[in-house]
Design goal:
- The chain contains twelve helices and eight strands.
- It is 50% helix and 17% strand.
- The longest helix is centred in the N-terminal third of the chain and has 17 residues, at 62-78.
- Mean pLDDT is 92; it is low at 1-15.
- Helix 3 runs parallel beside helix 5 and helix 6 (118-129) packs across helix 11 (223-239).
- The radius of gyration is 17 Å and the shape is globular.
- 44% of the residues are buried.
- The protein folds into two domains: 6-118 and 225-249, Rossmann fold, CATH 3.40.50; 121-223, Rossmann fold (3-Layer(aba) Sandwich).
- By secondary structure, it is of the alpha/beta class.
- The strands form two sheets. It has a four-stranded parallel sheet, with helices on both faces. The protein has a four-stranded parallel sheet with strand order 6-5-7-8, sandwiched between helices.
Length: 254
Amino acid sequence: MTKPDTHALSLEASTGFARARIGLIIPSSNRLSEPQFRRFLPADIAVHVTRLRMTGKHRKPLEDLLRDVEDAAGALGDAKCDSIVFHCTANSMEHGPEGEKRILDTVAAASGARAMSTAQAVVEAFHASGVRRLVMISPYVQSHNDHENEYLAALGFETVHDVALNLPPSDGYLAFPPSGWIETTLANRRAEADGYFLSCTNTTQIDAIPALERELGKPVINSNQATMWAALKRVADHIGGMPHIAELGGLMAR
């Protein structure tokens, strides 16, 4: 891929034109998805964000969530996003594949954009990386891990081991450093696993990926990394092909 023209990037910053636009619907407490997407994605890909109160004390039944998702997706559609992500790992898996489909159908109908979820991105990343049996590490309580394990099992994946760290949301998620994710993952390595899943969009996990892949010799998939990769695939025709972002591990180096 050719190096972006700096004058063109300056023009994008000043005028709002971009080669592609990615929309994110994120939990209101999430503070790391935006800076990580802007840090790693090419500068001429615009990222637009809408927040929903949908986690912790704001958790709600699917029918209520869908009404909020419709409004959020419509707003991102107004911003002319090419692809819109329902970007919360736990929420996109909690309602199972059928519930996820209803969320995606709502996003597409309200926005006119291509709809995807974090869960969908993770599954696509597993397939691309040859991961069927996995170790899952998360900052969540165990019940959240259980929902994710059920979702993945319904799609043919096997979680051979999982760890729920039960960190305090959301400040505890943010404060847990990449070195902590490296130490925790290495302490829970399993020879029978094809790869490792670091689950959650509001963590520093993404910076642990290169070191973990070097040490483990196996793919490491994280929610934000997988979503960036899957979103880029969906706009690749607009941006002249898939960029290679080596800092995000083997998935993004393909």
